[in-house]
Write a structure and sequence with these properties.
By secondary structure, the chain is of the alpha/beta class. It has six helices and eleven strands.
Amino acid sequence: MSSPSGCLMGFLLLLLHTAPLCAQPLVNRANIVGSASGLKQQYDYVVVGGGTSGLTVANRLTEDKSGTLLGRDHSMSETFTPPPAEIASEYPISSDLGPHGTDGPVQSSFPNYQYPVLKYFYKAWNSIGVPSNPQPNAGRAVDAFYSTLSISALNQSRSSADTAYFRPIADKRPNFHLLPLHSVTKIVIDKKNKKATGVQYVSVNNTNIVQTVRASKEVIVAAGAPRSPQILQLSGIGPKKLLTDLRIEAIEDLPGVGYNFHDQPAMFTQVT
């Protein structure tokens, strides 16, 4: 458990308003706010984190200003393009579109070129009893397989939450405020009903000034696997003994918060 100043790097504070706007009008674009002075005091939703999940959630919540959009089905959020014929013929890759989406915002495909030495890796795995799996996207991602990448088959450029969910709406969502270079240090929780009512945050340039913004509906924590539980613990949600030892008031004793992390072993080979 690190101090609040330990969670400053790499996060955005996303602030959005899905109800009809009132009070101070927003400019007619998804507004990147340069400082806290440009924020409203309250939003419908506060999304903590501007990465893959944070930008995606912010996009979805601001699609419909009435806030009723969550009934729509976006179960397939990708546009999958099968690999080139020469790649598919050399490696265990299925061109079956069934497990994939074909009209979503995130592009997924395979590189147009692969180093020939990779074929020997598959042969080695097969020789020791590890079979090839041509379709790991159908619910069985085991054995030796060639994984899809989040890239556009058209020009091999990377497809990300930024290109898929933020840039297309950057000039079209007046109900969306984004505050970069700030970090949330604590979720404000009503102790009586244990409901999140806002967040406290600081600027990366001045961590001594703590400010607060309110959320009338929800606070959504999307700060990644390491930082989301850290923010919860700083807010009093986590193992009670740990929080008490750190002089943090325990609002909800949840022993699993911040635990059960597992390493993901990986092997990389560089060929020159």
